[in-house]
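Worked example

This section walks through a single chain of length 139. The input is the sequence exactly as stored; nothing has been trimmed or padded.
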Amino acid sequence: MLIELTKELSTEQLNKVPTGFNNNIIWNMGHLISAQEGVCYKRSGLELKTNEIFFQSYRPGTKPEGFVDSDEVERIKTLLLSTLDELEADYDAGIFKNYTSVITRYSIELNNIEDAINFLPFHEGLHMGCIVALKKLVS
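Given that input, the structure is written out below as tokens.
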């Protein structure tokens, strides 16, 4: 849905930070990947599916630090789908054996991988709302 929602936007529109905002559409898209990696893989002590540089660029508490070119935009769009497929396969394979509990900034306690996976749609919904608002301002 997110890829469909943003498909007609230019790279410049995806990068635009409107007045009153501290991020942009492409940062939100990258953040969804990074957040999934953090709550599922990092908290389980596993290697990231992306890499540490990507994770650090989009993790919670960050903001856009530069222009994301069209190649990176396409990579992020690809990762939005491929990382979900990998998460499903890894879950089915039972690799999430250990999990370090956390209370999210939304006061939601995550005690295991199932909690983390159940948290993802809530978190994505929050950022989808941001993306819809941003889209109206950059279109």
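What to look for: The radius of gyration is 15 Å.
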